Amino acid sequence: xxxxxxxxxxxxxxxxxxxxxxxxxxxxxxxxxxxxxxxxxxxxxxxxxxxxxxxxxxxxxxxxxxxxxxxxxxxxxxxxxxxx
Length: 84
Description:
There is one protein chain. By secondary structure, the protein is α+β, with helices and mostly antiparallel strands. It has a domain at 24-57. It has helices spanning 10-16, 60-68, 72-83; strands spanning 28-29, 36-37, 48-49, 52-53. The mean pLDDT is 83.
């Protein structure tokens, strides 16, 4: 195992740690919905990146519609209940 030959002073130790500090994150505004986001990422609010919709975002209206639409499993269950 290697061992340092000379003692490292506290100032040298602290100077070496100067690059370990946290840096401020760069944020930009989404051109479509003006939400603050990280650069080069799709907007989580509207789903747009570089002027194109890349993520389909469900709105509250879409969620209500999808909950009211019956799936094939729901239809099968309702048929079984009707037979009883």
